[in-house]
């Protein structure tokens, strides 16, 4: 395994220092330095498996050429979502129709990478199968998993994470025990006047021992030391132990059983909350991943919990270590540790509110998707993209609930269709297709909601170059549009029909289809995105027919319409096709300016197809200018993106021909050896390197 200073990955920055765990970290390092491919950290909830895994990953990261990547699984409800979650974390973009586990295997096969699968216990079977498939396919892959029970995968090494060491009675070094050090460090902000006397130290030692060295229990106790003394907290613990007694309860059939000290610490943390804080804690358990204050108000507030109080209650739960703030570029978001979410979910079931809160969660995210659908073709696309990325886990949870135990295929169809802009414009085609296919198979057979979902699924099928599915969906939508005589729906049908003709190298027929609908006219409705796509494809078809002057004119009109809306995504498409047309006319400086503008816009929205096509155009411009090595490096950058997408140049004959011509020119200019070296360098470049190099005006 290569040992170099890699910092690639998505490991979160540590919020606190690690206390203890030196022997465990050394053992993990030893296992991976040897023959171990899969190491699973097991132990009770709250023992610190996730914290240990992240610390180990940070230490091991420099050993892996392609970095260390963490996949947080607690928000997943279904094992079938696991491959998508791994791909999202890496991040891997693949638009094809191949099974995602096969795509992951191919992606990882040539990489040296550490993958952390965090919180596997509720998806043990899926995690076991995925881990085995991936390590078999990828010699340079190592997987570090956390789970309350082993994965039972072939070749798995299991390391049981025990509570932190606690001192024996009378131990003169008791105050230096890891559990006591952790308690003292975490309590320090709450105890500004703490006096390091024998009595105070003895109190901390006794409390740490009473908590059995469990890190989460210690963190919860430390958060209360601003309100209660060490002695008062210890008394509370003693009272709860007496009431609870022994328990055989387990979580996810975990081994070993749910630890009594953990149950006790969470229980008295719950008791020390106000009734409103307890109720919010329970209700927040319906969120997957992170959430913001507005979502908490919309989902959790009612006559028993006033909306205006939710913000203050969130702050209180952060202060009590029930919630962890998650910094983002926009509004602050929060998450709840999995162990505490389970407690809240159990309490919610006990209150008889689980079904109601899941329904509210579904309603909230349906409304969010509909707002995004309406707003997308306007000035806030970048903000909506970021919002959807943050809410991905909750959107997935809402869809899974509707398609599973919620038995609400209509809402699933409406939600999946409304999210067309996220699936199609932000590089999430494969997962969008997964949900749309399921919802269309289960949902209503008629109505406006189905028509919108049919278009969204067909648009994704075009992006995946799944011609059979695109043709089937286009036929259904065309029949619906003709029956309704709806101009907006007719534009959507033309997008699918004409897009399919464009994919198959029939530009003249595509032009006839596009010209039959009023794509340049504002007519409202549910298909504004489809209308702008038809407009952009009309420019593309002009270019394919070598009607370059007409292409420039239509592209200018499209761009002006986008600018008038403050819109970015279609505007970047307009810049790309204008760049193509200008290239055809020999106006190379103009073409380069439009290509760079297109690349900037598509990169902002993580539109991988848009990025790849813009980079290919810049490569053609470099080759035409005699810059063979620059063209080769750009082709390498584009090739890596196309490989991740799964279908180079989308299989479009004109784009394939342009790419082949570019390679011939670049090889002739640079020579084969220099071309190959530059191409390989481009294939190795990271996303940031691609943008910096491609946007540089050579």
Automatic annotation (TrEMBL):
Name this protein carries in UniProt: Putative ATPase
Pfam families (alphabetical): AAA_16
Range of residues in the leader sequence: none
GO MF annotations, alphabetized: ADP binding
Source organism phylogeny: Bacteria, Bacillati, Actinomycetota, Actinomycetes, Kitasatosporales
Domain Orc1-like AAA ATPase: 18-128
Superkingdom in the source lineage: Bacteria
Database matches in InterPro entries: AAA_16, P-loop_NTPase
């Amino acid at each position: 395994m290569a040992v170099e200073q890699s910092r690639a990955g998505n490991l979160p920055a540590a919020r606190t220092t690690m206390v203890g765990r030196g022997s465990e970290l050394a053992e993990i390092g030893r296992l991976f330095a040897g023959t171990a491919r899969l190491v699973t950290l097991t132990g009770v909830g709250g023992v610190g498996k996730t914290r240990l895994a992240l610390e180990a990953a940070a230490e091991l990261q420099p050993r892996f050429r392609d970095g260390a990547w963490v996949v947080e699984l607690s928000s997943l409800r279904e094992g079938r979502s696991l491959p998508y979650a791994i791909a999202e974390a890496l991040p891997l973009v693949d638009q094809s129709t191949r099974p995602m586990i096969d795509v992951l295997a191919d992606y990882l096969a040539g990489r040296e990478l550490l993958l952390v699968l965090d919180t596997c216990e509720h998806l043990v079977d899926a995690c076991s199968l995925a881990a085995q498939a991936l390590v078999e396919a990828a010699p340079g892959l190592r997987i570090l998993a956390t789970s309350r029970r082993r994965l039972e995968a072939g070749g798995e090494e299991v390391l049981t994470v025990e509570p932190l060491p606690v001192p024996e009675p009378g131990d003169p070094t008791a105050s230096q025990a890891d559990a006591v050090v952790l308690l003292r460090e975490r309590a320090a902000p709450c105890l500004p006047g703490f006096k390091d006397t024998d009595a105070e130290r003895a109190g901390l030692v006794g409390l740490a021992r009473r908590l059995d060295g469990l890190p989460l229990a210690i963190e919860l106790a430390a958060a209360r030391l601003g309100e209660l003394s060490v002695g008062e907290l210890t008394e509370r613990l003693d009272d709860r132990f007496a009431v609870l007694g022994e328990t055989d309860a387990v979580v996810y059939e975990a081994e070993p059983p749910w630890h009594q000290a953990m149950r006790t610490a969470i229980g008295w943390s719950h008791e020390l909350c106000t009734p409103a804080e307890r109720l919010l804690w329970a209700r927040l358990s319906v969120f997957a991943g992170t959430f913001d204050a507005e979502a908490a108000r919309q989902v959790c507030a009612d006559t028993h919990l006033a909306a205006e109080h939710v913000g203050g209650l969130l702050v209180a739960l952060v202060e009590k270590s029930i919630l962890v703030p998650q910094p983002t570029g926009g509004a602050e978001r929060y998450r709840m540790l999995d162990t505490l979410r389970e407690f809240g979910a159990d309490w919610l079931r006990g209150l008889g509110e689980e079904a109601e809160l899941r329904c509210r969660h579904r309603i909230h995210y349906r409304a969010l998707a509909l707002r995004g659908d309406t707003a997308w073709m306007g000035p806030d696309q970048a903000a909506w993209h970021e919002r959807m990325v943050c809410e991905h886990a909750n959107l997935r949870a809402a869809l899974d609930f509707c398609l599973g135990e919620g038995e609400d295929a209509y809402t699933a169809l409406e939600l999946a269709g409304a999210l067309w802009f996220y699936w199609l414009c932000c590089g999430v085609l494969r997962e969008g297709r997964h949900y749309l296919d399921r919802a269309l198979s289960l949902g209503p057979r008629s109505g406006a909601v189905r028509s919108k979902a049919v278009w969204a699924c067909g648009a994704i099928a075009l992006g995946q170059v799944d011609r059979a599915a695109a043709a089937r969906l286009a036929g259904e939508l065309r029949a619906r549009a003709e029956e309704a005589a709806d101009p907006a729906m007719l534009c959507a049908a033309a997008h699918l029909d004409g897009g399919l003709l464009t994919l198959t190298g029939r530009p003249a027929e595509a032009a006839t289809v596009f010209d039959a609908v009023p794509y340049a006219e504002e007519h409202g409705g549910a298909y504004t995105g489809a209308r702008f796509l038809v407009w952009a494809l009309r420019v593309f078809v002009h270019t394919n027919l070598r009607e370059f002057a007409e292409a420039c004119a239509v592209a200018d009109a499209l761009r002006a319409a986008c600018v008038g809306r403050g819109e970015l995504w279609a505007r970047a498409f307009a810049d790309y096709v204008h760049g193509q047309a200008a290239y055809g006319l020999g106006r190379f400086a103009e073409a380069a300016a439009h290509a760079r503008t297109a690349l900037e816009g598509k990169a902002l929205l993580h539109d991988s197809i848009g990025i790849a096509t813009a980079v290919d155009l810049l490569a053609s411009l470099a080759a035409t200018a005699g810059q063979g090595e620059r063209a080769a490096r750009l082709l390498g950058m584009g090739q890596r993106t196309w490989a991740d997408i799964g279908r180079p140049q989308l299989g479009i004959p004109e784009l394939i021909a342009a790419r082949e011509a570019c390679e011939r020119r670049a090889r002739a200019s640079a020579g084969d050896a220099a071309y190959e070296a530059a191409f390989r360098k481009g294939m190795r470049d990271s996303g940031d390197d691609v943008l910096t190099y491609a946007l540089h005006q050579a």
